[in-house]
Here is the input.
Amino acid sequence: MIFLPTQVIADQIIIFRHALAPGVGDPEGFELKNCQTQRNLSEQGRQQAIEMGNKLRQMGVKEAEVFSSEWCRCLETAELLGFGSPQKLQALNSFFHPINRGLKDQFLQDWQAHIVEYKTDKPRIYITHQVNISGLLDTFMSSGEGLIVGVNVTGDIEVISILQ
Here is the structure.
């Protein structure tokens, strides 16, 4: 059953896969600090990111703390949501690329700790990659799809609803 919420409460945790960036992985010669060497958002992806932000505002999100992978497609998605500049969070970086493959367990552990331990009175939005979401939540997300998650009493992260 898919539950599409009509509002987001202040302390919700929202996870999005970056908006549409056609292709798989990154080209040979990829450099994290050079967007021209990466797979980036298409025009459709940019529009999708703007619409993601608009949907959140329709659900009552007026401001949020936004955290992003350092990949350009994630940072651009995060910026286009319209909630201010994102904070880079290394734990959200893709471990699909060989440069980070050995860091999978560390990234997932660090991201889970951030979700559980970071305190704020604003919604938190995390923009990351499909492999990270699958690794943390065993859930496949298409580009631009999101989840609202919560932390239960035992400290486990649970999916509350799906944002489409």
